[in-house]
Amino acid sequence: MATAKHYILGIESSCDDTAAAVLLNNKVLSNCIANQTIHKQYGGVVPELAARAHQSNIVPVVDQALQQAGITAKDLSAIAYTQGPGLMGSLLVGNSFAKSLALALQRPLIAVNHMQAHLLAHYIDQENMSAPPFPFLGVTLSGGHTQLVRVTNYFDFELLGTTKDDAIGEAFDKCGKLMGLPYPAGPDLDKLAQQGDPKRFSFPIPKVEGFDVSYSGIKTAFLNFLHKNTQQVPNFVDKNRNDLCASLQHTLVKTIFEKIEAAVAATHIKHVVIGGGVSANSEIRKQLLEKKTTDNWKVYLPPFEYTTDNAAMIGIVGYLKLQEKAFEDLKTVADPRLKF
Ligand code: KG4
Ligand code: ZN
């Protein structure tokens, strides 16, 4: 029997990117994003400004996604949107837009957990990419989250460890800002680190129980280190930027990598699936790929467009939930602290 054809609209608005995508079953037809540049001048996301920008962006971005997919709204089978976790004002825009569209078109509404979506993005049908088998160890590294998760089925997620304070991406961004890098600093810091010596300076790796991590101590240690050294050598950062980036990146990556290794050892799960913006980091990728050879890990690295915040990952969860008929009614609310 031929598989039914379903067009799914995915909408993502949890933080500072307004995104919309159209999927035909598990294939992406369009994946559009409106990045909000307004936050650059503040060195971080300003929640109120993010919510306002989502309001202006959401209609044009959805229109663009439909046009690029070559369909109209009437062709859609379901509307999937990010219910949480994220910023309340930002989530509310996606929630009200999705509900209104579902009501107007009389189509099912599907609520998606953003953190599940980062990992389930690996089930988007793509050439030369195989989807991870269950169970797998999910590692979500972004500006808002740092999570280690045991995933036993599409919707069976068990949180093994998380950050006690800052997310890993936040640590990259805040430490980068201290060195004068523009927001978000992660990509620039990564590039500069490639020209530097990771062993030149050392920063303490925090000791945290179990599979949890902590990043606020490293940030404070880095701040104090820069302060002390610039008092003696005013252009200390300019003179040592590459080595500072490489040494800091080494510490940030080591902090999470030790926990990933410990989780693989404890669970005996060698399928490691990465998601979130920080998974673009070259040092993390390098260390994971080394594990493939040395310890026979199976490593799943998503293509960049499906790993930073995007709506295709919301669409794929929409498709998976459509199979289960996991629909919401119009009373469904945005949940900034949504758990698995
Ligand atoms: O997943 P994402 O797009 O949005 C959130 O949900 O936060 O992740 C954004 C984060 C930012 O903190 C950014 O600095 C970081 O991902 N990032 C990187 C790299 N590329 C993006 N961090 C380190 N190295 C990179 N190459
Ligand atoms: Zn995210």
Instruction: List ligands, each type once.
Output: 5'-O-[(R)-(carboxyoxy)(hydroxy)phosphoryl]adenosine, zinc ion
Distance between the ends: 34 Å
Could you describe the largest sheet, including whether it forms a barrel? 5 strands, mixed
Number of spatially distinct domains: 2
Low-confidence stretches: none
- Mean pLDDT over the full residue set: 95
Helix content percent band: 40-55%
Radius of gyration: 21 Å
Give the strand order of the largest sheet, numbering strands 1, 2, ... along the chain.
Answer: 3-2-1-4-5
Bulk shape: globular
Number of E-state strands: 10
What share of the residues does DSSP label as strand, in percent? 15-25%
Q: CATH-wise, what's the superfamily of the largest domain?
A: ATPase, nucleotide binding domain
Order of helices and strands: EEEHEHEHEEEHHHHEHEH
| CATH fold node name of the largest domain | Nucleotidyltransferase, domain 5
